[in-house]
Amino acid sequence: MKSAVLPLACLAALVFSAPSSADHSNGVGLKAGATGIGLEFYKGLSDNFNFRVGINNFQYDDDFTENDITYDAELELRTASAVFDYHPWSDSGFRLSAGAYYNGSKVNATARAIDGEYEFNGDVYRVEDVGSADGKVEFKKFAPYIGLGWASAPTSTSSWSFTAELGAFYQSTPEAELNVSCGSALDADICSQLLADVKIEQDKLEEDIKEYKWYPVINFGVLYRF
Questions:
Q1: Cα three-residue angle 71-64-216, rounded to 5 degrees
Q2: Model confidence over 77-117: pLDDT tens digits?
Q3: Do the Cβ atoms of 78 and 59 come closer than 8 Å?
Q4: DSSP 117-161
Q5: Euclidean distance between CA atoms 38 and 32, whole angstroms
Q6: Burial class (CB within 10 angstroms; exposed 0-12, middle 13-18, buried 19+) of 3
Q7: Number of domains within the chain
Q8: CATH label of the domain that carries residue 41
Q9: Could you read off the pLDDT of 185-222 as tens digits, one per residue?
Q10: Less CB within 10 Å around the terminal CB: N or C of the chain?
Q11: DSSP letter (8 states) at residue 226
């Protein structure tokens, strides 16, 4: 975690300690979208460049079925960003962006018994055969980002503006983990088979989610500049 957060924090401290280039070049923004609800701080660098750092958070509960297993899932969106914006035209709000995210998002899941039974790798186990059955999906913490969007022009003297952002950060291949314990009364041989079936299910889950290497960033918000 520290290896991802520390470089972003150092970069933000360095940029925000620099003097502003013009009036109304700094600001604070509130946004919402694919990364959750977030707060951003802006630093004007020139008539064409600005820098912003942000934090985002959101939690969502749902269920999903994967390989015949139904999970009660909790999605935690927790990210921090450090992004440079380039406005090709100083009198236009259009911007091109590049930077990085700290990606602390994850999915926590608990397998749900259906009609008193679990099914792992095609084998059926009674609910009393399983002590616990949960898992998680996590991502690489450091995630490079590219995008484009709209905010107030760097040379604008307006205090308030609307913001929009479309981009994606590269979170690499997600890592899945399934943890199942055997019931206290389960035969040792059946317990070994259960754990072997769970390992196969984990491999299947990782195969199914390996294509989700890019996370889309679509956000809208408001910006106050001062």
A1: 125
A2: 999 999 999 999 988 999 999 999 999 999 999 999 888 99
A3: no
A4: EEEETTEEEEGGGEEEEEEEEE--SEEEEEEEEE---TT---SEE
A5: 6
A6: exposed
A7: 1
A8: 2.40.160
A9: 899 999 999 999 999 999 998 999 999 999 999 999 99
A10: N
A11: -
Point out which residues pair with 87 in neighbouring strands. Answer: none
Cα-to-chain-centroid distance, residue 182: 32
Using a cut of 0.90, tell me whether the model's pTM lies above it. Answer: no
- 101: domain range? 2-225
Token digits of residue 173: 């291949």
The closest alpha carbon to 224, from 25, 36, 32, 48, belongs to: 25
Tokens of 35: 């990364």
Following CA atoms 88, 33, 220, 155 in sequence, which dihedral angle do they give, to the nearest 10 degrees? -40
